[in-house]
Amino acid sequence: MTRVLLIGANGFLGAHVKRALTGAAGTSVVTAGRSASCDFALDLVTGGVAGVLAALEQAEPDVVVNCAGKVAGPPDVLAEGNITGPANLVGALLTRGCATRLVHLGSAGEYGRVEVGTPITERTRPCPVGVYGVTKLAGTAVVSAGRAAGLDAVVLRVFNPFGPGSPVGSLPGRLATQLRQAIAEGTDVHLGALDDVRDFVDARDVAEAVLAVCQASTVDTGVLNVASGRATPVRQLVTTLADIAGFTGVVVEQGVGSARSAEVPWHQADISTIGELLGWKPGRDLTTSLTDLWQATT
After folding, report:
1. The pLDDT value given to residue 259
2. Cβ atoms within 10 Å, residue 50
3. Is residue 97 part of a domain?
4. Would strands 40-41 and 27-33 be described as parallel, antiparallel, or unpaired?
5. Of 77 and 257, which is predicted with more confidence?
6. What does the CA dihedral 155, 214, 163, 36 come to, rounded to 10 degrees?
7. Four-CA torsion 74, 5, 151, 268, nearest 10 degrees
8. Which of 295, 282, 284 is nearest to 244 (CA)?
9. Does residue 68 lie within any of the structural domains?
10. How confident is the model at residue 209 (pLDDT cuts 50, 70, 90)?
């Protein structure tokens, strides 16, 4: 039985990861975090290495999955959540000195602006363009340093996750909420520019990738892309969800898109490495994911 300590189980991706791990044969899951609903109290930032080490000693995990982090906020908040927290976790795992695997969720934001038309591999040079991407890349560097020091650690660079439960801070989640309101009130939907192209991946597929890493006997690389492997125009996602919702109004494009996506017009991942090493591939297409998102939206 593999005992997994899940950090960040109350977040969007964390909740999907928890369901995938809980339902997997040969795997038991305990959670750690600031919420009273967690099995173990843990704050990766304020607890320091000593606080994280205490939680590890209590939980005695075979694998630690870190889904915690910050996607928005001022630079100091992003730095704490995406750099300080992972650094404390890596420090505690190295101090503990046992063969505990770390699975850390990174982000496509680490790659930043890339050559349009060339799929992004794990060897593509990261060049983040915003504070979020910079801090996520720094977090990956911390985990990679831990791996170099002997820690069994893997970073999963997750591209644009969506699906049931998508937060309103994401385009799919915000759009679903606005469509509900627009249909009820007979109004139009207003969004930013929709010219970009992204690689959208279902959060449930991400969770299955995490499970695959947890169950693998060895993982011979420190960074793996987790994505659909498809370049999807953002406008296509919007029109597809609008059609699923039965929306007959107008989608008005105003201003610019997300600040986190600024200066990054195109992303598509190459997911061949994770397929070759772990046999993982995404199992849900855009329409299925958006249909499930719509049905889960209240």
Report:
1. 55
2. 11
3. yes
4. parallel
5. 77
6. -90
7. -60
8. 295
9. yes
10. very high
Which pTM does this prediction carry?
0.97
The CA distances from residue 3 to 15, 63, 208, in Å, are 17, 6, 16
Domain range for residue 108? 2-163+200-230+268-283
pLDDT score of 239 more than 70? yes
Within the chain, strands assigned E span: 2-7, 27-33, 40-41, 63-66, 101-107, 153-158, 160-162, 189-191, 197-198, 200-202, 223-226, 232-233, 251-253
Q: Is the distance from CB of 121 to CB of 225 less than 8 angstroms?
A: yes
State the average pLDDT over residues 92-109: 96
Amino acid (one-letter) located at 82: N
Query: Domain of 90: which CATH number?
Result: 3.40.50.720
Residue corresponding to tokens 């809980």 = 22
Q: Is the pLDDT of residue 86 over 60?
A: yes
**pLDDT range class, residue 53, cuts 50, 70, 90:** very high
Q: pLDDT band at 258, cuts 50/70/90?
A: low
